Amino acid sequence: MEDFEGKKILVIQTHGVDTPKRTYSPLYYAVASAAMEIETTVWFTMNGTNQLRKGVAEMIKLDPSSNVTLKSMLQMCLDNEVKLAVCQQSLALWNMTPEDLIDGVEIFGATTIIDLALNYDHVMYF
Amino acid sequence: MGYTKINECVIAKDLYYAVEDNTWVRVHDDGTVYIGMTDIAQSLAGPILHAKAKPVGKARKKGRPIATVESGKWVGPIKTPISGEIVEVNEELAADVQLLNKSPYNKGWVVRMQPDNLEEELKDMVTGDEAVLKYKEKIERDGIEACAHIEGTDSYEEE
């Protein structure tokens, strides 16, 4: 495998619990990226924000026969050192406060995301 | 070689295990070590679709990834339990990646390493009856279901 250690990927997730089938893949890619030792951040904004409300992601399951939920996908990200960050302004869109967020999520403003987009090696937008 | 099954999950008793990372080490006569994933790991992942190992010559500290493995439902690193340099990658996995499922302790090894500090790091691993005991505890604690095996899996004769 080519060595990508030290590279950085930013994953932007704009899809949330209203479209479950669009929620898993970006997180899956993020874990794969982190497993390849690429510094990986998932940035949740717009509808993507609502999956970070405590108690919500546990309810989202793509395969009824599986015990994998969207919450376990988010946890898999954290376990693999994927940084999870949410758009501060999007919290207001969903009437959420920082206390509503699951553990392990950072809050960034718009200027931070622009910084990240310019400084990362690649941006994947969903 | 002696095998033990716990809840259909095979433990090869001659290997050293990093129980929480579900990896094993086999010490070769020349001082190098083979590293792979356990039967429990392959069962939890399900049929493997892709595996990419780090290249030969890559130095790795204990706990760093030596490969990335993905199935339909899981993706993640295989973390080396031993520090050292990768001296060989299992090229057979390129032709049949599901050797990881079918033969996790034999043909499905992932990399061979030249260890830096083998004697010391093996002390953090378990082997033989102690490995069986630790896996019994882990299987109960984590509620791990009976291991599943795909067609073509090695046959294991229990001791």
Q: What would the keywords be for this entry?
A:
heterodimer, A: 126 residues, alpha/beta, Hypothetical Protein Ychn, Chain: A, five-stranded parallel β-sheet, 4 helices, B: 159 residues, alpha+beta, OB fold (Dihydrolipoamide Acetyltransferase, E2P), seven-stranded antiparallel β-sheet, 5 helices
Task: Report on the architecture of this protein.
The complex is a heterodimer of chains A (126) and B (159). Chain A is of the alpha/beta class and 126 residues long. Chain A has a single domain, classed as DsrEFH-like (Hypothetical Protein Ychn, Chain: A), CATH 3.40.1260. Chain A contains 4 helices and 5 strands. Chain A has helices at 24-35, 70-79, 88-93, 110-119; strands spanning 8-13, 39-44, 83-87, 105-108, 122-125. A 5-stranded parallel β-sheet of chain A has the order 4-3-2-1-5. The model of chain A has no long low-confidence stretch (mean pLDDT 94). Chain B is an alpha+beta fold and 159 residues long. Chain B has helices spanning 39-45, 92-95, 99-102, 118-122, 128-142; strands at 3-6, 9-12, 16-18, 23-27, 33-37, 48-53, 59-60, 65-71, 75-79, 84-89, 111-115, 126-127. Chain B has a 7-stranded antiparallel β-sheet with strand order 7-10-11-5-4-3-12. A 3-stranded antiparallel β-sheet of chain B has the order 6-8-9, with no helix packed on it. Chain B is globular, with a radius of gyration of 14 Å. Chain A binds chain B through residues 1-3, 28, 31-32, 35-37, 66, 68, 76, 80, and chain B through 52-55, 58, 64-65, 67-68, 70, 73, 75-77.
